[in-house]
Amino acid sequence: MALSDRINTFGQDLLRRYGERVHKLAINAGFSCPNRDGSKGRGGCTFCNNASFNPSARETPPVAAQIEAGRRVIRRRTGARRYLAYFQAYTNTYADVARLADLYGQALAEPDVLGLSVGTRPDCVPEEVLDLLGGYRAQGHEVWLELGLQSAFDHTLRRVNRGHGFAEYAAAVKAAHRRGLPVCTHLIAGLPGEGGEEALESLRRVLELGVEGLKLHPLHVVKGTQLANQWRQGEFMPLSMQEYIALAADLVEWTPPEVVFHRATGTASLDILLAPAWCAKKWAVLNGIESELARRDSRQGARLERGLAPPSRCLAAAG
Ligand code: SF4
Fold first, then answer.
1. 265: which of 90, 97, 107, 285 fits an S-S bond (Cβ 3.0–4.6 Å)?
2. Where is the Radical SAM core domain (predicted)?
3. What mean pLDDT comes out for the span 290-309?
């Protein structure tokens, strides 16, 4: 069995709905982040790579050129002929709405780009930006708002210097849903001070609010971060691969089958990854999650179908 037989993956979801493979093309439009320049916070999240914020990293090729480079690679590798422009790097709503409309519009002008996926922070989605994205959706484009939440616990968010709390996330989700925009929420397993119970409780709170997509990542340490210092000083221990696989399988089992997993693990390039080394092996981790679900004779939503109590009730006062 493949992973997509046990998990409702985004790739399969797109294939079902469009009748052909649709692939994401990652765009770096040169945005920065309000959690670094003082408008929302300073210093950035403790796990975020500082080096990526030097000015030269923001001198990016035009959107159309990035799409052309990406489509050449993806077409050769996967055969996909239709794409989603994935505004991925940093905070992709952090500009005035005219600039955003220009950048998103450049992507949508490409005839084989059927929509957008826009990654951002929950405290950086003003009404006019949501109106812009909602407008694209009303025109028939596939549009996803990807919100980095990471944890539903405010004390954890403070500890990793996110610069926002769960309340901002809840408000952003409600505002997106009022415009019919589907939300994909990013969660991190293994954050400092958190174990499996907290990850399950974060999932429970996200599902309770309503979400259409999820991205799961194990917390990994990359060069040039505050987390790297904490890891070197022994203040932070990453999850083992087996711990992450077991926890990811738990999270999948507690997620309703209709929620789409855009990602079930995360990776970093070897030149910046410090720990854990297994994070570089994306396919080994994904195969491990599939094997773990097979061992349990299980799949997405299985625990809900068995009528079990929701996870972590004892932590319901989180935040
Ligand atoms: S992880 Fe995202 S929100 Fe945090 S500092 Fe980096 S770009 Fe900003």
1. 285
2. 17-257
3. 90
